[in-house]
Amino acid sequence: MSNTLFDKVWDAHVVRKIEGGPDVFFIDRHLIHEVTSPVAFLGLKTRGIQVMEPKRTFATADHNTPTINQHLPVEDPLSANQLRALEENSKEHGILHWGLGHENNGIVHVVGPENGITLPGATIVCGDSHTSTHGAFGAIAFGIGTSEVEMVLSTQCIMQPKPKKMRINIVGKLNKAVTPKDVALYIISQLSTSGATGYFVEYAGDVFEEMSMEGRMTVCNLSIEMGARGGMIAPDEKTFDYIKGRKFTPKGADWDTAMEYWKTLKTDADATFDKEYTFNASDIEPMITYGTNPGMGMGISNQIPQSDTVKDGKATYEKSLSYMGYEQGESMIGKTIDFVFVGSCTNGRIEDFRSFASIVKGRKKADNVTAWLVPGSHKVEAQIKEEGILDILTDAGFALREPGCSACLAMNDDKVPAGKYAVSTSNRNFEGRQGPGSRTLLASPLVAAAAAVTGKVTDPRELMA
Amino acid sequence: MAYDKFNILKTSAYPLSIENVDTDQIIPARFLKATERKGFGDNLFRDWRYNADDSPKVDFPLNDPKYSGKILVGGRNFGSGSSREHAAWAVYDFGFRCVISSFFADIFRGNCLNIGVLPVQVSEEFLQEIFGAIEANPDTEIKVDLQNQTVTLLSSGNSESFEINSYKKENMLNGFDDIDYLQNIKGEIQEFVKTRPF
């Protein structure tokens, strides 16, 4: 029988099928952070049950952590309380915990792959919708709610109906200055924020085969923004090279056994999908969003669509543009901006900082721009320094902050003020996402760099040799 | 943890005729800092419901005294974005037991089912009829019958059936939750663990 990559991994994790109901679905590796886990631990306590498989859960602090002065006590008492709860709960249940300042600390979806927690063919969950990131390695990875965090802690399983299957192919070669972020924003603009709801996506075709692991993570990360529970890419030599030798990757004979299995993880030639899309790489240009959901994106040289051409209702669309302070038919090029944020689980990896540095090198930060450059982890931070990227950034008038989710979601001190515009490499441009009243333009690190040195929305191709 | 049993709900409803309502609107991230499940209803739709100085926005439906009830009716693609279960907790804590929309985001739908809030998906036409009926008369009642999987607009008598898997339906009718189920098959799960290579 012919199976998809998704079928192979899913079916290998079904403990029990319930007639007319969900599957009892086994989770290999569980990531937790300070925000969505405390109530789950409280639930365990109330029920008087222990964590069943503590070695399969990994804790890191990221969401409400400050990104400066991490060596000092956290000032916000509520944040400090959640961070303490994560540490104490981890300790009580024998769970590995990477708190603030730990060399392995960072954003949960950055440190998972870095430390070999993320593996092909594994099932990975976390109380965070961007868990889809880990699908880049051929894992089934998705976000869960706190009730499900409690299920995984107590029984290493959740109850999930099997999603439908979608394949998205992108064929051909990407244009200049078109990054994995642009590919993802393009797909979401085509499918809308609900276009893949109910589906699990496999990304296939030339573009993803040629893409780096960092790039694949960016694309899979954004799967949730078109409604998909997750997205995945078949593991290949790049995947195996990336994971080999990492902290929690199997070693020796275990590695050889695992490799034999991992090499079978691809969609069979005659397997079928419930839905399939194919796009041409050449149609994609650097992208930017103009509205209040990630589906409201366009090529940077285009004009904001008229309300009668969009899929959403007119009232919802006009409300969105009004929030942003933009008009239908306008160009985004030349729009003044106030903040630039480079970081997050979407674009906080080494490649993203290389990309940003390639444009700011030899230029200066615009005076009207406040820039927050936030590495996804201490490992990324160290690499930025090792590769000399920090010097380029410093010469151009930028400073590097300490790792964390930072301005992606306005849970910590890094908030964009009301009415201000931020070009952000993160994942959501929802109303108030980066602070009450803030206005977010989602884009790639290249577009963010072009904005950071010019103080306005600028086509990065104009600044590239 | 057992929650309230759900059988028949007959009540008026609050209308929120906006599409793509994301969970950052339902509850902004800055209100996710509690370590207990308490008080989230106060911050339900915080930035749509209150001005920056914490005064209520009078035209927002949740602040409008003419509306009442235990059902929230939302536009298409309700609950997209973040997986925060706090969004479902806020909906519950405000007093809602059911959300009606023409389309739900996956994770939000699952979170609702896990805490005893029933997500009811209806056709876009029926959703618009419900919005119209509430606008015409805010006291309009809606009857949601879980056993029979029907939702009825009592002013017109028009009705639609809705989908829910039989396992979750039994859970909601009886107030059971998934952990009860999983705890009962723990032996089977422990056997399964032994087969996992990593």
From TrEMBL, chain A:
Biochemical pathway: Amino-acid biosynthesis; L-leucine biosynthesis; L-leucine from 3-methyl-2-oxobutanoate: step 2/4
Record: residues binding [4Fe-4S] cluster: 345, 405, 408
Gene responsible for this protein: leuC
Catalytic activity: (2R,3S)-3-isopropylmalate = (2S)-2-isopropylmalate
InterPro entries: 3-IsopropMal_deHydase_lsu, Acnase/IPM_dHydase_lsu_aba_1/3, Acoase/IPM_deHydtase_lsu_aba, Aconitase_4Fe-4S_BS, Aconitase_4Fe-4S_dom, IPM_dehydratase_rel_enz, IPMI_cat
Broad class of enzyme this protein falls into: lyase
Function field: Catalyzes the isomerization between 2-isopropylmalate and 3-isopropylmalate, via the formation of 2-isopropylmaleate.
Keywords linked to the UniProt accession: 4Fe-4S, Amino-acid biosynthesis, Branched-chain amino acid biosynthesis, Iron, Iron-sulfur, Leucine biosynthesis, Lyase, Metal-binding
Cofactor (UniProt): [4Fe-4S] cluster
EC code(s) of this entry: 4.2.1.33
Domain Aconitase/3-isopropylmalate dehydratase large subunit alpha/beta/alpha, chain residue ranges per copy: 7-455
Cofactor note: Binds 1 [4Fe-4S] cluster per subunit.
NCBIfam families reported for this sequence: leuC, PRK05478.1, PRK12466.1
Family: Belongs to the aconitase/IPM isomerase family. LeuC type 1 subfamily.
UniProt KW Transport keyword: no
Quaternary state and interactors: Heterodimer of LeuC and LeuD.
Regions that span the bilayer: none
Protein name: 3-isopropylmalate dehydratase large subunit
Keyword Lipoprotein in record: no
A molecular function GO annotation: 3-isopropylmalate dehydratase activity
TrEMBL record, chain B:
GO molecular function: 3-isopropylmalate dehydratase activity
One of the Pfam families matching this protein, by short name: Aconitase_C
Keyword annotations from UniProtKB, A to Z: Amino-acid biosynthesis, Branched-chain amino acid biosynthesis, Leucine biosynthesis, Lyase
Enzyme class: lyase
InterPro entries, alphabetized: 3-IsopropMal_deHydase_ssu, Aconitase/3IPM_dehydase_swvl, AconitaseA/IPMdHydase_ssu_swvl, IPMI_Swivel, LeuD
Catalytic activity: (2R,3S)-3-isopropylmalate = (2S)-2-isopropylmalate
Enzyme nomenclature, EC number: 4.2.1.33
Keyword Lyase: yes
Domain Aconitase A/isopropylmalate dehydratase small subunit swivel: 6-124
Pathway: Amino-acid biosynthesis; L-leucine biosynthesis; L-leucine from 3-methyl-2-oxobutanoate: step 2/4
UniProt cross-references to PANTHER family, sorted A to Z: 3-ISOPROPYLMALATE DEHYDRATASE SMALL SUBUNIT, 3-ISOPROPYLMALATE DEHYDRATASE SMALL SUBUNIT 2-RELATED-RELATED
Protein function: Catalyzes the isomerization between 2-isopropylmalate and 3-isopropylmalate, via the formation of 2-isopropylmaleate.
UniProt-recorded name of the protein: 3-isopropylmalate dehydratase
UniProt organism field: Aureibaculum flavum
Gene that encodes the chain: leuD
